[in-house]
Every structure is written in structure tokens, then in C-alpha cells.
């Protein structure tokens, strides 16, 4: 369960809000995590929330069995609409990162089946668009490859996995 202080820290008044939470008992006890929403971003708020939760799962700051705050609690912590949180949670559930269990959204965690043979076509298309944009902006193949490797290392914590 999201056992944070319940405080919302507005780092830049009106533009960014951060909710801090800590792990449930027995899961990396004492380790906290942050969910930040940037209100000045062009990215929709629900997408920011989805992306941040997926990043927390990838970095193992959220692990299988952790329970996300209720939609009402999360909306209150972040100062966002309840329906926005519901939309984000629905996306996480549909993508297989979470499940609804007795009206609580529980993290399933990484979808870590060794599945190198078949890559999800939607995921592949998103990657293709990001890489196409990088090429269109003039980045070299090596710069893109270095950037991807750096991102993977930062998510996995270097040699963590």
C-alpha cells in the first residue's frame, strides 16, 4: 500500500507536484518512491502517471504485490482529477502491469518472460517512431545506440540484472 506522508510537494508552484510513498511492510522496507506530475508538460497527465508507474516497476521501486493508492487517494495526493487516475490505472491493468483485486489496484510487476522471439508490435512501433524522430533531428546511429544503452543501464541500475 502507498504509505506516504500524504503531502504534495509543489516544487515549482502550479507546474509540478510530487507524491512520496513508501513500500509496504516486507518490501524493501523504508525505501520510498516518488510519483511526479509536470503540469507544464504537453504530455497528458494520465500518460505521465502511467509512464512513472511503469518506470517504478522497471526499477523495482514497485514490486509484485505492492498496492497502488486508491484513485481518490492518488488524485488527492497529486491534485489531479479522479477520472484521470482511473484512466491511468485502466491502462496499467490492460497492459498487464497491474490487476484489480477487491477494488484495489495491485502491481503485478515486470512482464519478464524470456520472449526475445516475439516483440509486441505496438511496442515496436512506438520505438520506431522515437528512433525516427531522433534520426530526423540529426542524431547519429551511434548517439542513439549510446543513449538507449544509457537508459537501460539507468533503469536496471547498471549491472543489477
Secondary structure blueprint with pairings:
Blueprint: E1 8-12, E2 16-22, E3 32-38, H1 45-58, H2 71-78, H3 82-94, E4 98-101, E5 104-107, H4 121-136, H5 141-156
Antiparallel strand pairs: 1-2, 2-3, 4-5
Taken together, the total number of domains comes to 2
Structural class: alpha+beta
Shape designation = globular
Spatial sequence of strands, sheet with the most strands: 1-2-3
Give the SSE string: EEEHHHEEHH
With helices defined by DSSP (H or I, 4 residues minimum), what is the helix count?
A: 5
Instruction: Tell me the fraction of residues in β-strands, as a range.
Output: 15-25%
End-to-end Cα distance: 26 Å
Tell me, what is the CATH class of the largest domain? Answer: Mainly Alpha
| CATH architecture verdict of the largest domain | Orthogonal Bundle
Overall mean pLDDT stands at: 77
CATH homologous superfamily (4th level) name of the largest domain:
Winged helix-like DNA-binding domain superfamily/Winged helix DNA-binding domain
**Residues in helix, %:** 40-55%
Count every beta strand, where a strand is a DSSP E run of 2 or more residues: 5
CATH topology of the largest domain: Arc Repressor Mutant, subunit A
Low-confidence stretches: 1-14, 22-30
* Cα radius of gyration in angstroms: 17 Å
Describe this structure as you would to a colleague.
Helix 1 crosses helix 3 (82-94) and helix 2 packs across helix 3. Strand 4 (98-101) and strand 5 form a beta hairpin. It is built from 5 helices and 5 strands. The model is unreliable at 1-14 and 22-30 (pLDDT under 50). Helices cover 42% and strands 17% of the residues. By secondary structure, the protein is α+β, with helices and mostly antiparallel strands.
